[in-house]
## 1
Amino acid sequence: MPNILFTNLMGGFVFDEKFKLVDYILIDQNRDILKFRSALDEIMKKYEAHEASDLESSFVITEFTDIKYRKHLVEKNLSITRKSIKNSVSEDTLIVHAISSIEDLDKITNLLSKRLREWNYIYNPEISHAISDNEKFSNTISSKSREQLLNDLNIDEDMSLGSKLKKNDISAILSLSQQLTNLFKLRKHYEKYIITLEMEICPNLLEVAGSQIAAKLLRHTGTLKRLARMPASTIQILGAERALFRHLRNKRKNLMPKHGLIHEHPLILKSKLKQHAKAARALADKISIAVKVDFFKGKPIGKKLKNDLVSKFSIDY
Amino acid sequence: MPNILFTNLMGGFVFDEKFKLVDYILIDQNRDILKFRSALDEIMKKYEAHEASDLESSFVITEFTDIKYRKHLVEKNLSITRKSIKNSVSEDTLIVHAISSIEDLDKITNLLSKRLREWNYIYNPEISHAISDNEKFSNTISSKSREQLLNDLNIDEDMSLGSKLKKNDISAILSLSQQLTNLFKLRKHYEKYIITLEMEICPNLLEVAGSQIAAKLLRHTGTLKRLARMPASTIQILGAERALFRHLRNKRKNLMPKHGLIHEHPLILKSKLKQHAKAARALADKISIAVKVDFFKGKPIGKKLKNDLVSKFSIDY
């Protein structure tokens, strides 16, 4: 029997016919894989070795139970794991983090806006009342003085119900509104950031579903790969799992859910109630095509898919 | 029957014996109350009028049902209401708003810290792991570069499990940490702000209970006045209402609560479990004295009360 060559993640090992180790080369952490390949070829020629078959491998493997290999094996293993962890982060992971942060920020800005409104009621009640949009309210408070604000509303200062506060007290309210304004800005920053990421990894999905729904679909499935593998009917009710299982438990009382995460899409929001199911089906269909094209890096198809939907339902978005 | 003088919030009105209006003076919005008083005296002398008795008033009042007084009455009423609303804001209201904001900020910083840690795990996992304090974590992330951070932890960059991200991706994480750091700063700002307010309106309560517990007691009762009227036994279990009513419903199973909002006080936290009830009773006692002295603007007594507690339980705070 001739010499045999056995390779594993530590390197290449040449054994003779009695399965005794003759020679070996190790893969250094930083060594080039091509260089290792050529070194392997050389050592094969030198010992006239052939690569180990499955049967031969099982004999050879006992050699590696020796403790002297342990440390080397552990190190090698760690370095491979480390590399694969490092490379496991892709754009879809980043999108998932950004969209989760946006949802957190929505909760937070709501909470702080409520607090700011209440607090501001004692200093500037007319403004708390006049501006119902939270973001605009916070911006206005933090950018204008009370005199300006009352002037804008045509209210005489004596007629205002606000108390005269000390500088210290006013600055406490203003600090809150400034932080709130910054949080609103951060939300916008993340919206744009998500779009730039989506332009890279899922331009077609972005075109068909819109950036927010695309991001939420990705967050729900975790990766683009998993989303690309789903049939349209699953995509249609992603996020409506509770309703789905309620339906499966009791078909008479609870209808099948028409849509999950995609219910916020303008195509569904703007269509009539009777058309909701039809629109959701068509949208999920196109999304499933778009995401498959994105995953397999096909030719851009988003615009065409979107136009199909727009012309079918006569709803522009 | 001589002339009679009837006064109401619109002004002074002189009627003859047949309850016909003879003369009147109105209180102008900005007029001095003393000037009005002297004008009233003059008109009384001039018509030899006496102030209306209850019986006479009831006859006179019909005169004011005339529609011509309506507008004047409404205006007068509004202006008085406006003034009393304006003056209703006192330091305790501001403390209540500030402490509520602090509690909101606690929730928010917790939520965002969790999000930041998760997000940062893909870029800088070693740091997410090394620093357990949220505020310190956020400060560190936002102030140092990844190289510096790894250097501080003595970790080789190749050994780090973090992925190499693009500039855009890193800045998304950093923006979050900067906002979070600002929110932590805002919380500290409010802590100081509450102390300055408390130094003004309840220095003794501040001394005995500490700023946070003092503020929470005020938030629970709404005003210093209401807190000052409460007996020590009520103050002891403020904030433990659910436990109290559970006890009242079922005395066998559920014990009387030992303490409510004051349970965070170092005197209780640091004492032994067996001493908790005793410490809570003593603390509530001293708080109730302090808050009464504060409300009636008595001589400073906070230091003495605190020293009594410290020496009784040998716990310094």
## 2
Amino acid sequence: MTSSPALLAADWGTTNFRLFLYDADGKVVARHTAHIGLKNLGGQSFEQALQSVMTGPFARPDLPVLLSGMVGSRQGWIEAPYAQCPAGPDAFSQGFATPPSEKLKVRIVPGLSSQNPATGITDVMRGEETQIVGLMTQGLNDGIVILPGTHSKWARIENGKVTSFLSYMTGEMFQMLKVHSILGVLMADTADDEKSFLLGVDRALEDTSILSLLFSVRTEALFGRIAPAHLSSYLSGLLIGAEIGAGKARNGLQSVGIIGDGALINLYQRALSRAGFTDVTRHNGDDASSAGLWELAQQGHLL
Amino acid sequence: MTSSPALLAADWGTTNFRLFLYDADGKVVARHTAHIGLKNLGGQSFEQALQSVMTGPFARPDLPVLLSGMVGSRQGWIEAPYAQCPAGPDAFSQGFATPPSEKLKVRIVPGLSSQNPATGITDVMRGEETQIVGLMTQGLNDGIVILPGTHSKWARIENGKVTSFLSYMTGEMFQMLKVHSILGVLMADTADDEKSFLLGVDRALEDTSILSLLFSVRTEALFGRIAPAHLSSYLSGLLIGAEIGAGKARNGLQSVGIIGDGALINLYQRALSRAGFTDVTRHNGDDASSAGLWELAQQGHLL
């Protein structure tokens, strides 16, 4: 017998929306994904979009709702100001924003910003901070958390706080170079090739000049050393290797948790191993989000 | 009174075609540009395209013709095999390729390849080697030659030979990020801004992780620190700074000759100065090509 539903929560991003229903013990009793990311709202208001997915087991307008992700950005429901590094779960749960809603009790988790005093550059995340909290509930209180993706994040965790983080445009660069550059023209019938991927990783770990290394996608094709079908794997290796090389130079060989799913995480795991990271754990993205949202709802006394 | 015409020569690339007519003393007596780059040939053969521009003072089918550039590539008139570094003018003039032509005496300058024994990566150029020869005729026999552009080249010159070189995808990356990335979306009414450009240069010279630095184009916009109209200058500074930082790390602060024209060369000159290069000379691209073609025609006994 399960206890009765107690919380609705969602990771609400630009593209994805992932909804969770929890019982009073924090167990996820139902989950749902919908195409109501910020760029797919059509004419709906945020409240309308949220209500449109509150059907079946989710038809519980009486429950509190906690949201994380780009829904708290300037283009979202309401802007939830960034917490600043160093920040732990308490900083997020004390910073909930309350968007205007007639019928629902909604709170939004703030994003997180990291200021680099040496460069003056500020970096930002929204949604990932909640996933990191999810890993903290599993005991990850020191080390590095990597969140691969369009804009990969490397977060440094010390004593249960995110002390700093940095974004890398790895995923966006990969897609852009494949589709819009002279390198993409050379690629054909893309097939994953581990050897080409690892060659790219190794070269990027040896040489920090990715602007130059990228040109080797062209010359390796020109001289027939990498088959057209394997150039995409080589490019992926160069970019992921460049990201990991930079992260290693900045953080050293600490323990690492990677958050994400599917083939991309496999690639990161292989590349991290190549770079000498030996203590690497994998964490499902949905589980990290749902665990983080529950933890923050608890700490923020939302229930 | 000028001596009579003695040589026709052209830099024939993917986009551009620049034709020179020389007298017997090597003086350029007429020059012409045409839109018959490799990608604009339409249905014409290379011989037809060349004959189409041999009008007026260039109507001299009796003269020898020397070509450099992508016309010697696999997609060109005939593939002129690459000379290999280290290589000086003699290697190029001994490697002329002879394309099939019924009516003209045509030779094509080989390209140049550079093998990095540490990485196993081979780099290539076509056309730039002839411009470098042009600078050598002006006394540049040691130092670095930079050829900024879509795929910038840094060539190391020692004792009158190109001993190695490396390409950087700086120009293509800039265009691609402006047009196709999340960064370009933030830019508006682009205006050149020296302060934003130099901020980008300085940051890239301090930090080798360009994949991460590029994300700061987004956050500097988000926090209103760089105006939308100046983001393009900042992006340009980051990329050119990253190229120059890598070139400096590889070659040290040597004397530098830059080949090219217009605003781009001004940017490189400012960024090189920021990086500590004090001995920098500028060279017009057309003049470098025409001087190099004349020198190679002489050494190859084409006249």
